[in-house]
Amino acid sequence: MKRMLSGIKPTGQLHLGNYIGALSKFVSYQDEYEMIAFIANLHCITVPQDPQELKKNLHDCVALYLACGLDPKKATIFLQTDVKEHAQLGYIMCCHTYMGELNRMTQFKDKQANGEKNLSGGLYTYPALMAADILIYDPDYVPVGEDQKQHVELTRDVAIRMNHRYGNLFKIPEPLIPKVGARIMSLSDPSKKMSKSDLTNKGCIYLLDDLKTARKKIMSAKTDSLGIVKYDPENQPGVSNLMQIMSSLSGNRPMAEIEQEFAGRGYGDFKRAVADVVCAELEKIQARYQEIVDSGMIDDVLREGAEKARSMAAPKLDLVQKAIGMEITAH
Length: 331
Ligand code: TYM
What we know:
Blueprint: E1 3-8, H1 16-29, E2 34-39, H2 41-44, H3 51-67, E3 76-79, H4 85-94, H5 99-103, H6 106-113, H7 121-135, E4 141-143, H8 149-166, E5 174-176, H9 211-219, H10 237-249, H11 255-261, H12 267-295, H13 298-323
Parallel strand pairs: 1-2, 2-3, 4-5
Helix pairs in contact: 3-12, 4-7, 4-13, 7-8, 9-12, 10-12
The protein binds ligand 1.
C-alpha cells in the first residue's frame, strides 16, 4: 500500500478552502493509501498566537478531522509536538537548506512585501520543518492545495541533496494537487486565496460557521456584471470560484453541466444553489463534530496516533543521525 502524508496548521478555524483543497481529499484517499494526517501545531507558532485560542483551535482541528470522515482505524492522526522527532529532524533539515531557497518561498516573501513587522525566524525556516514532517515518514504522496506545492518541491530538492551526500536516506515524495479546488478564492475578493487570516471575515467560510452566516457570505460573494454562469477564471473569477466550490462538493461535477443548468438564469439562483450545496455539507460535518466533542474520544485518538507515528519516525531520525555522523554509540 502506498503511503500518503499531510497536515494542517490551525492558526485559526479550518475553512472551506482547507476542506476542499486538502481535508476532504485525505478522507477519500484513506481506503486506498496508508494515510498519515497530523496537526501541525509547531507551524502555528511561527506567527503570534493567543495560548487559549490556539488550544481551542487545535482541539477543533482534531474534531474536524474526525467529523469530516478521517477514521482513526485507517489513518494515523496525531499532534506534531507529540512526536518530538519532527523538531529534531527539522533542525537537521534546516542545516541542509540554503538561505537562497528559503528566500524564494512565496509565503515569507508575501508577508515581508506586505510590510509586516517582527516576522519570526520560525516563519522563515518553516519550510525546512515541513520537509522534516514529510521525509521522516517516507511517504509516496503529499496531498496539498496549490499554495503548498512550492514547499513540497523544496522538500524534494533537499531530500535529493541529502541522498546524494549521505546515501539513500529518504524516499522522494510527489505532491498531489487536486484538479478542481486546489485554490479556493476569497468570496469577497476572488483575486486572493480563501485564508484563515481574512480580517474582514466575509470572504472565508469556516467549517463551524452557522449555516445562516455561511449562506449570507455566499449570497454576498463578489461576482461581475456579465450575468452569465461560465467557467472562466480569468474574466469571471468570482463566478468561477463559486463553480469550483459547487463542483468539488458534488463529486467533481463537470463545469459544462453547471453552465448548462444555470444558462439564462441570474446569479441569485446560482448563488442559492451553491449555498444549498455548501450548507448541506457543513450541516453534516457540524452534526458529526458535536458527536465527537461529546464522546470525549479525542485524547485516545491522539495518544494512539502519536504512538504509531513515533514508531515510524524514531528509526528514521536514528538512521539520519547515524548517516551524518552525529551518533557515537553503536545502538
Ligand atoms: P495550511 O494549514 O495553510 O493549509 C492546510 C491545507 O489546506 C490547503 N489550503 C487550500 N486549498 C484550497 N484553497 C485554499 N484557499 C486553501 N487554503 C489552504 C493547503 O494547501 C494545505 O494543503 N505548511 C502547511 C502545513 C504543513 C504540511 C506539512 C502540509 C506542515 N507540514 C507537511 C503537508 C505536509 C500549511 O501551512 O497548510
